Each structure stands twice: as C-alpha cells, then as structure tokens.
Predict the 3D structure of the following.
Amino acid sequence: MRKVIHRSLSRSFLSLGLIVLVAFTTSLSAQEGDPAKGKSLFNANCAACHQLDKKMTGPALRNVEARLSDEEGLDREWLYAWIRNSAGLIKSGDAYANKVYNEFGGAAMTAFPQLSDDDLNNILAYTAEEKKAPAAPAAVAGAAQTADTSGGISNELILGALAILFILLAAGLYLVNKTLRRFAAAQNIELDVETGRTPLWKAFVQNQFLMIVVAIFFLLSSAYFVYGYFMQVGVDQGYQPVQPIHFSHKIHAGDNGIDCKYCHSSARVSKTSGIPSLNICMNCHKSIYEYNGETSPEYPKEFYDGEIKKLYAAAGWDDADQKYTGESQPVKWVRIHNLPDFAYFNHSQHVTVAGVECQTCHGPVEEMEIMYQHAPLTMGWCINCHRETNVDVKDNAYYEKIHEELSKKYGVDNLTAAQMGGLECGKCHY
Amino acid sequence: MSSNKKYWKSVEELNENSSIVETLKQNEFVSEIPTDEFLGDKETLESTATTRRDFLKYVGFSTAAASLAACEGPVKKSIPYVVQPTEIIPGVANYYATTVADGFDFASVLVKTREGRPIKIENNNLASTNGSANARVNASVLGLYDSLRVQGPKKNGNSISWSDFDAETTKVLNGLKGSDKQIVLLTQTYASPSTRNLIADFKEEYGNVNHVVYDAISESAAVEAFQKKYNKRGLADYDFAEAMTIVSVGADFLGDWQGGGFDAGYSKNRVPDHGKMSRHVQFESNMSLTGANADKRVPLTPSQQKLALAKLYSLVTGNNVSVNGLPEAVEAALKGAASQLKKAGSKGVVVTGIQDINAQTVVLEINEYLKSKAFSSNSSLKTREGNDKAVAQLVADMNAGKVGAIIMSGVNPLYTLPNASEFAEGLKKTELSVAFSMKEDETSTQVQYLAASPHYLESWGDVEIKSGHFGLTQPAIRPLFDTRQFQEALLIWTGGNGKSYSDYIKVIWNEDILNGASFNQALHDGFFVSETNELDDIDALEGVTDETEEEVVSSGAAAQALASSTNSNGLELTLYTKTGMGDGQQANNPWLQEFPDPITRASWDNYLTISKADADDLGLSNMHVANGALNGSYANVTVNGVTVKTPVMIQPGQAKGSVGLAFGYGRTSGLKEEMQTGVNAYALYQNFNNVQNVTIEPAAGEHEFACVQLHNTLMGRGDIVKETTLEIFNTKDKKHWNAVPVVSLNHEETPVTSPEVDLWDEFDRSIGHHFNLSIDLNACTGCGACVIACHAENNVPVVGKTEVRRSRDMHWLRIDRYYSSEDSFEGDNEKKDNISGLGSSLSEFGEMENAADNPQVAFQPVMCQHCNHAPCETVCPVAATSHGRQGQNHMAYNRCVGTRYCANNCPYKVRRFNWFLYNGNDEFDYHMNDDLGRMVLNPDVVVRSRGVMEKCSMCIQMTQKTILDAKRDGRQIKDGEFQTACSAACSSGAMVFGDINDKDSKVAKLKEDNRMYHLLEHVGTKPNVQYQTKVRNTTEA
C-alpha cells in the first residue's frame, strides 16, 4: 500500500503557538494553487490512504506544508521529491523521510511521478484550506423539518374549517326544522305521525331465506379469513428485525452500488449466501470511518458514525492507532430468511447456474434502509417461479443433451425449471 | 314363534333361595369394579377440586395456548466469523487426507469436514495401501464427539493444568534417571517412524527406559515366525488379488486377521471374468466372515486345524509328515485343496490364523514352496509390533518393584489383560503412573496422572503401514478439549525446545523418508510410497532381543511339530473379534454397538457361539419369544478357573467341539450405561492365546438378544439370492441359471419384464439421468462398511437395544445373511420344488426353517430398491412418497403423516418408521441428545422427527450435488462421479452406482450383464437396484 512520510502534528508544537507562522505560509501556498482542482486530484490519487484531518494508512494532511516547514524546516521541494519518489528519498538517507517511513510501519508510499508541479501545488492548496464548520447539515435538516410540519398544519386547517362548516350547516338545519314545527303548532296544523310498521330488522329476522343466505355468507367469509390466518402462520414476509448493527443495504448496495456478491460471496459456490465475516467489512471500513452521504432526521450522520464504531468494536479495530487489538466480538445478527430444515435450497444453483438476480427473491434490497423479508418463502411461491422461469442453458455443456431431448419432447424451445424436473418433491426435500 | 325355553346360567339357579342368584340379578359384576384404585388415590381424587370437566377445560386451553404460541417463530441468530478462514466456505465441504492408526485399525482415509467439523470418513482411493475404511474406521468420526471424553489432564481424579503435570512428572522422571528402576513406556503399535525416533530420544535422555509395545489382540506368533524366517520383524503381507486359489486355515482375513484390509484384493478375483474366478477353501471353527464367503468351508476345531495344516503341508510339498486323527471327509477336502494349490502354483496362497509359531512357519514355507505371487517376503506389514513376552515380563517386573514409572498410551491393560488384577497391583508399586487416554477407562482411572489425549482427527502422526508405505495423520479440527498427544508430551520430557510434533514429523520425513519429495504433497495425499523400500533402522526394533531363544526350525520340522502338538479332548474356545467392535476401543460408539454382526445379525451383544449338536448335549437353547425376538440360555464358560457367564447363540457352521466368544465387549468404565453390553472375553485370553480349552455349564436365566434377522434360511426361494456354480455359469445359457420369471398372459408364458403384463404405463426415462445401483453378490463380503457409511451420511438415528429387539432398527441399508438348510442353496431349491401335498409341505417347510450344520452362506445388501413401479407410492394417502424422473423414489418427510401403508406395501421391507423423536431426546442417550454428538450430523440431510417414515434416498443429496457441480462448471458428468454413501464406502467394488442413460457407464454395462437380476422380479416392481447373481466356484480338485 501507498504511504506518505509526513508526521502528524504533535500537540507540543500546537501549544508552541507557531500558528502565526503557519498562517503566513498557508496563505502563500494558497495563492499558488487552485483548491478546487486540488480536491479532485486529492480524491483521485491520495484519498485511498490519506484524509485531511485523520490519520489513516498515511498521516493526516491538513496544512501539511506549513507544518513541515515549521517543525522540520522542510520546503516544498522536499515534498515534491517525496511524492514523486519516496523510496528514493528514504534511500538517500534523508532523516525525516526515514522517520516517517518507520512511524507508519515501513509501508512505502506509491510514487506519483506523473504529477506535475502545478498538480502538486493544487493539491497542497486543497490541503491548506481551513476546515469547514460541520453545522451546515444540521441546519439543513432542521429546515426540512419545519417545512414538513408547516405542510401538516395547512392540511389540518382545511379539514378543521370544513368540519366547522358542516357543524354549522347541521345546526342551521336543526334550527330551521324546529322553527317550522313551532309555526305548525302555533297554527294548529297536524303533522302526520308514522304508523307503527314492522321494523326492518324484525322483517329481516322473519325472512328465513335471507337469514340463510346471510348465514352462509357469514360462515364462508369467516372461513375465508380463518384460512387466510392459518396460511400466514410461519410466513414471515416483511419480517424486519432490529439488528445489532444498523447495516443499511440502501447505502451499501444502493448509494454506493456495491455488488451483492462482493460481501455475500459464498452465494456463488455454496448453498448459503453467507453473512459476510467482519474482515470483509473492514476491507472498506478501515478507511471509511465516517458517513458522508445523505442523511435524514431519523438517521443523522452521528447515528451512522456510531454504527461504524460498533463495527470497529466488534472487529477489534483501534481506529486511532489504525491497528487491530485482537479483542473481537462476533456480531449476533438476527437471521431474517429462515427456511425450514426439511427444505433444501442452494444459492449457487440459482445465482451462478441460473443467473437469477438477487432481487428476484430478496426484493429491492438496494432501497432497504433496514433489511426485511421480501418474499413469502412459501412452497407455492417457489413452485410458481419454477413453473414460469425458463432455464438458462446457454453455453452450459451440462444442459446440451438434456435440453435437446426435452425440447423435442415438449415441443418448445425454452424449458421451464418445472419441465426440467424442478417440481419433483425429492429435489428439495431430503 | 318365540321359545319358552329357559336358559340356566348355572346349577345355582335351581336353588330359589340362593343369594348369589339374587345378587347377580342386580349387579352385572359380583364385586364392585375398583375404579378408584386404578384411577389413583381415592381420597385425593374425591378431595380434589378438579372435576373431569375442569380437566377437559384445562387440556383445551393449554392445547390452544400451545398452538397459538407455536404460531410465533423463534428468533434465530446468525453469527459469522470475525475473520473467515480462506479455506472455509460455509455450506461447502472440505476434504483432508489422514491416516487412522489406533493400534488396531490402520487405514488411509479422507475426512469430510463441514464448517470445520469432521462429519464423515471416506476411502482414500489414491492410497496404495489400506486405502479403504472398514466399519469401525467409518464410525470412528463419532468418537471425536463423544460426550464422555476426558476434557483435560487429571491427577488422581482431579483436574490439574498441563504445566503442573509437566513439572510434577518431569521431577519424578528426573529422580529416576540414575536409579536402577525402569521407566516403562507401554504403548499400542504406533508403527510410526517419528514416534520411534522420539522414543529413542527419550531413552537417551532418561537412560533406563523400556519401551513395551502391547497389542490387545496379539499377532505375536505370526510376527515371530516371520522374523525367524526372514530376520525382519513384521507380518507377512498378502495380496489376494494375485491369488486364484486361496486356502485358509483358521484365518479370518476378511475380518481382522493381521490387521485386516485384505478384502479389496480378495474381491477382485471373486467376480467371474472370462469364465474364471478364484477358488477359496476355508478350514475354521467359528463361522467367520471369511468362511461365509468361501466356496468350500470345512468346520474344524482349532486342534484339528493344526493337524489339517500339517497335512496340507505334506500334501503340497511332498515332505512326509505323519498326521493322525483327521476325519476322512477332511482328509479328502485337504487333498482337493492341495491339488488345487499345486495346480495354481504361484497363483495359490495359504494363510492361517492359528496363533502358533509352527503353524505360521508352515504357512510361510508352503507359500515359498508355491512361489506364491500373493506373498512377498520383501515386504511386511508393520501394524502389529506387540510383544507378548515383554508384556508378561513387565507385569512381573512391576510386581517385583523394578518399575519406577510407567507411561501408557493407546492401551487399556486393565481391561484387555487377563491378569488385570496383577497389573493393577503392580501399578501401585510404581512411583509414577501416567495414562494417555481419551476416556476415563479401566486403566486411566487407576493411574496417578490421566493425560487427556486428542482424537486422531485432532492429532498429528505418521505411520509405516507396510515396508515403504507411509501414511500421514493430520488434524482436521482444532482440539475440542484441553488435550495433548503422547508424542507432544515426549517432546516436552526430552526438552524439545518448544518444537511441536508436526515440526518433528516434518524433519524426520524430510531427512529419512521423502528423498526430496514434497512434504506438502505427501500431506495432501495422506500417504507416501518410498522407492527405497524401507527405513534402515526398522530391523533394530526394541523388545526383540529374545528372538533367538529357539533355534531356527528346518523345513518340515515345523509341520511335524505342529502335527504332534497335543490334541485336545474337551471343548475348545476360539476368541475372535467382531466386525463391529474389534478390540473394544470404540465400545462407547453407538453406531458400532447397533451395527448388526454380519454373521449372527445380533447387535448390542457378544455371546458364546456354539454348534447345535453341542448345545443340545449341554441343554442350551435359543428360542423365539412372543414379540418375535430372540432369547438364549446362559452358560458359564470356565478357562483355568476363570469363569464368565455368557449368553449362548447357536451358530450354524460352528465346528462341533468348538465354541467362540468375541472380544471387545463387557467394558464398564468410561461408557454410557446403554453401551455397557456383553461380557469381557479378555478374561479368558490367557497367555495371549486365542484358543483355550473350556468347560461349559448351563447357567440360570434367559438372555434377551437384539437380533435384526430371525429368519435364517431362504426356504428354497432361490430367486431372492440367485446363485449358480461356476461350471453351470460357464457352460449353460443364462435362462438356466438366471431366468426371468414368467407370468401367464392369455395362457402364454410371458416374461414379467414385458410391458404387456404391466399394470402401469411405462414412463419415458431415457432423458436426463437415470440412476441405478448394482450390487455384485460375488464381490460383496458382507463387511458392513456401507452400513456405517449410510448411518453417517444420512443422519440415521440409533434406537438402542430394546427398540432393536422390537424390530424398530432404523438402518436404511441392511445386509441380509442367509444360511442354506440343506448342504447348499441348490439343495434347498430342489427340496422345495419336490414338496407335494399338504403333509409333506408342513413337515418339510418346517425343516427348511433350520439352517444346516455347515450351511452355505449368502450376503445380500438390501436398501430401498427405488422401484419404477413402486408399491409404496400408490398407497400413500398424502402423496408423500413419489417418483423422480431420475429413478429415485422420493420421500417428503414433511408431507408424511405416518400411516405406514407404504411400509406394509413394500415387498422389500426397507422402509423405517420413526417411532420416537430420537434427536434431542434423553430417552435415547446415544449421540443425538447432546450438542457435541450432534456435531456429526450431515447438514445437507434433514433429521427426521417422530411419526414419519424414512428410507434410503439413493443419496439424492450426493447426486444433486454432483449435478450442481457440473452445471456450475458447465460440463458433462463423467462416469464414476455419481456416488452414494454405500457405493463410495465399498472397497470391494461390489456396489457400483451410476447413470444408465450414459451408455458407456459401468453400471449401464452391468445392467446388460447376464448375471443381472432384480430382487423379487416377479412382483413387477422394476427396481433401480440390480443384483449380480452369485457364482460359486465349486470345482473340486
């Protein structure tokens, strides 16, 4: 891996109050380069190992030039030499180069001979930018919240006004009715009083035919619901348990477009898709220590950063020292997709052989902030798919003969899994 | 018109004043029915507030509550690795090659592991020596998960740490360094070059060290005879694949004779090829697996065997040896055998199991005379190094106080020594006693230090199985407990500088064995064959210093000495080992306990086998009881004042005047209660002689056997096990010896295979795979490796002795054993065909139920036949069993409601019903009721629950996996890729599995073979399991 041989600023130097000098040099270099160009160059070339404010594989680089000249008396030329060929500099016996090299575990930094002086100046300009205040995102979130609430109020207002209107109307009608009756009484007009007809419900009860029809209807509909209830027993569609670490598939598979099988690699070769071991997470999260994507009021940045901390604790990663402590704590995930023991399912058959998309069964995982069970995972659901799905036989020597013979037998070109024998009991139950 | 007759119930009614009549008029029963009594305590019943209605309410509520609670699924946790090992993919099995070397069984095997857990032992087909696992080796994986394993070192029964153990033992050992007391290492046969070196280091370090190798079941006579003749210590190595005429005198070479592993070679020539097959004559006293497979078997008592061997020697070599006292029939058989041997010349071989140095020498001489290719004096088996004399001397030394420290490994002398009490006394006189053991067994509980040792699947090791053929043992799992193997301890005692035993092996191998070959390759293969025949220092084995005490006998003298050895008058006992239990190391293994003995078909027991004639004389009997199980008398067996009480099993074929008793049973220490079965035969194993003169007296009581086959004969139904002789096979047309049964259609005889006589339309099975399993009754020796392999692969539960007695055994695969009632099965068929009339049928069928005194024996593995027209499928009310296009009869356990119609309708009786929940049920305390024991379960096969039917699935999980692997690779499947657990475990080549739609496959060719037939073909079930007719080589002279 690549490394830069710069020492992070030690606290003693900070306290020495040499910031004044630093400021001078900073402003100088800032004038020489374009921070915007520098940022894109930094992200393309340096960000794999460096951050501005955090020690990673290599040291933190905020104000690196200033610090170097203050603390070590090294100028920009030294930096050029280092970035373009750090190994050469170390070999030449440069004291500070060797010091940094050893401090970061003897990992050499990749040489960047292709970067011109301008490029380097741009990058240094970017590193010399002042740190931004982190208050902005919170403010944005707050604003969004107020906007939401104002929308709610306006709806309620309309509804409230309508309700009042209706009440007024009803009251008006009642008053009118009352007044008219008073007039009638005053003028001795007799109002027709309805004679006692059989009430509707009594008539209904007395009508046996209706009763039977209703009873049948009632029984059938309750049977329907009872059946429905029993059929969903053990079907955990939509099961969305709280996990020990809030892992967002939306961020990983959706926003960042990471292939499912990067983490669930055993889905290719095994019957289980495999829950990735923590070393897979750490492949990326060694350098991704904070969340910088979109946030919501429910899940602010601090929340996600906290979850990454949980991962570090589980994997035993000391983020400050950038090394493993060896004190790991396996994560006890809650299993979402549970097939009963008597049903055999093999991921590799579907993923590798058939080329079925993960989403076919697992749903829009890339949109799931919290993972849930998308499919019912019932036998009927399996069989339905086996009936409808054509087997992908292209370029697979295994299928050549059987496909030819079966297509002849069924007189079709494309065979479904069912025609291949995919509905036989023993294919899944043994 | 109604009758006016009055019916009297009794004379009492004549007496008008009788009170009884009056009472009876009022009450139906004379005395009141004691309902309260059988309902329980009357008072409590009356005082209790719970009425019957309340009770029903409670039952109703609790049932409803339970079913409601069941609607909520449990929360399952899934815990991935923190750092996943690169070689492990969850759900994909890994295989490692390793070598078993437990002192009794030596074999190169593959270990199948899932998620890091070893779950099955398979044959290492690459290995050139002992690459096949027998039933015990197959079952050994379960020993890893034995809940009674010792989990850490102990001192006088209390746990200590290894560091304390080291400090304390080293102190005593150092104290003994200069003294005149010995330090004794008493070990099993390791046959390990590295261990030998380590022990040499240990000797150097401590000086007065005596290494005694102890085999519980001795082959000393054979080792010494070989040593005397060829000046090398080892066992003669035989390759039966090179032999066309085999004469065995008391050698159970298909069993555990000389360490076993000869069956694969033997079976090669048992299958008639171009009209030729080997001829095998067996002289023996007990009915052994080998005798059962022989073309001709002559029952002889052990003393007669000696005479017979001497006679055979004189007949073959022409050296005159005077032999008297052999019956004429035996003489004739010997003459025939001798002439066949002479005719076969270098293709002939003679072996013997008589533990007598003269007998062993005679055999070596005959084989040399024949220049037998099946035998080579250059190569020898190293798997039995035990020295009886040294062990006897050790016991004497211990009691004389000459032994300061004794360190034991892989041995259990307090169980296996006949003079165990003397050994125990001697043990008390030592300053230090250490036992390396996996169990708190008889010995390890009596020593000061119990050093918990690992299972071989957790250990490193190496072994030289035979000259130049090396095997490597590597761990397939990290040690489950705080254990340490013997060799690691030796390294520590010799100050090994923290070097591990694996490093040590690597050094030894690179220096002495590999000759520059790659260690990693050897580790990958699990074995290595050295070009430079053998290790130099092998001759200089310890403990053989007394070898030259007897002078080398000259040719013919050994035979003469053998002939004149004393003849015994009384009953002679031959101690033997059973296929399942061996020497008894794995007595706590429920698979092996429930494994039915191939000959007697009894499980969970050992017993005295005795001939019918002797049993009648002594008043001993076997009887069937009302529930169909077998009971037997007890007998007191006395050898030189030591008496054991054993149950008696009447054994057809047992030589009159002889009895047999198996080792390995009667253990009590370190075993679950259920496994403490049988009697300890080692008590009778005096002077390491497996033949003893005994007196037998009937004893009181009746023993209950758990025997899975009670009907011993075929009753002349020759179409079940089809058999013919080599002569008929070679000269006559198929229809004479393997005719397809016919049925009458329009008064014409039509073969049952014809579609016209079929009730069903034939389904087109020509597309895709169509699996068939072929079983060659000629190659099958009945060894039972397949039974255990099936157990392991398919999570078949163990049900225990009482359940087996109720015929509720769960074996998916059984090996039926049939005896002939006449002298041959041919005779049975004739007798049945000649029965006419009711009288004759009643008497003669009755006679045919009894096996002959020396019957012919046939083995027939039977599993689900996967009928294309399956009777079970048509009767299932819920369609739980159905047919697959690939020929397999599927069983959907989750669909089964347990009506058992299918089992009733199955003509082969291969379906098994789960009467209980065997998994996680403490009533069945075997291995599936604890977390450790359940680790052996195969995750690809469901564990069946109570109330469902189960049966052989033709290992559909294995065929499906093969298909999936091919699909993933995008390739066709080659012949031989498809396997079932049984066919993969079969080292004799009797079981061949494959796809008959692949016309070039072996099984497709076997299906067209003339010997092919289906079991009960006339039923018209069209099975997908085929059998190959058994051919016996009855050529005399």
Observations:
- Residues 52-70 of chain B form the longest helix (19 residues).
- The mean pLDDT of chain B is 88.
- The longest strand of chain B covers residues 691-704.
